[in-house]
Amino acid sequence: MIDLRNGKKISDVVISTALGHGGSGMFPYNLLPGYRSLMRAARKTGTTIFSKSATRHKRIGNFILEDPRTWKYVQRIRGSFNGMLNAYGLTNEGAAIEAQKIYRAREGGFSVIPNFFSEFAKGKSVAIRETLEAIEIYARVLGNQFSAVELNYSCPNSGCEIRANMENCADCTSEVKKAFPWLFVIAKIAYDHPFEFA
Predict the structure, then answer these.
(1) What are the CA-CA distances from residue 188 to residues 35, 36, 71, 106, 129 (Å)?
(2) Element (H, E) at 177
(3) Phi and psi, residue 136, nearest 5°
């Protein structure tokens, strides 16, 4: 893929959400040698990293680092070599703080693209407005380092009915493209969305 703003290439292989909200690693996994090896390889090769989803404002999702009951959302996949199921989401500090984390990761040599979740459970117009506000924040904080965003329309931890949000997602994507025509927009849809939506 080509980054439309500055002509730089987005890597053919990407790392999606595994390196946290900032895209430069996630505690306590960064204590593991294999995970640190992934972090080094991503930085050395310039592999594109999608951050973990942020929302416009701070949100507590189904995972809290300090709460051992919520660790059930991060599990090893049985029969898989080092595979992990990452079924937690949407606990984040909000777009303004998460943008700062991405900025620091990029300054540290990581190639990070923000991942944003539009909260349609708040209503379509609020979700679209907050999406546009978040993108303005990313543009302000990241400056010319900001050229792409992934809009996450597939989070199962959102409280939304994923299959019913297609019109909202299409309208949100359209509004983002109208407001930011230079922005490369990736719409991440769910495996249970109908093929026609893709």
Answers:
(1) 24, 27, 25, 22, 19
(2) helix 166-179
(3) -60, -40
Going by C-alpha positions, the residue among 82, 81, 62 that lies closest to residue 18 is 82
Q: Where are the alpha helices (DSSP H) in 14-148?
A: 33-45, 95-107, 124-142
What sign results for the dihedral spanned by CA atoms 118, 111, 13, 59? negative
Q: Tell me the pTM.
A: 0.83
26-30 contacts, C-beta under 8 A, 24 or more apart: 26/52, 27/65
Output the tens digit of pLDDT for each of the chain's 198 residues.
445 455 567 888 898 888 888 999 988 888 989 999 999 999 999 999 999 999 999 987 766 667 776 666 665 556 555 555 556 567 899 999 999 999 999 999 999 999 999 998 899 999 999 999 999 999 999 999 999 999 998 765 445 566 667 888 999 999 999 999 999 999 988 766 777 777
Sign (positive/negative) of CA torsion 3, 54, 99, 12?
negative
Supply the angle between the helices 95-107 and 124-142 in degrees, to the nearest 10.
30
- Rounded distance between C-alpha atoms, residue 131 and residue 125, angstroms: 10
- In the 8-state DSSP scheme, what is residue 24? S
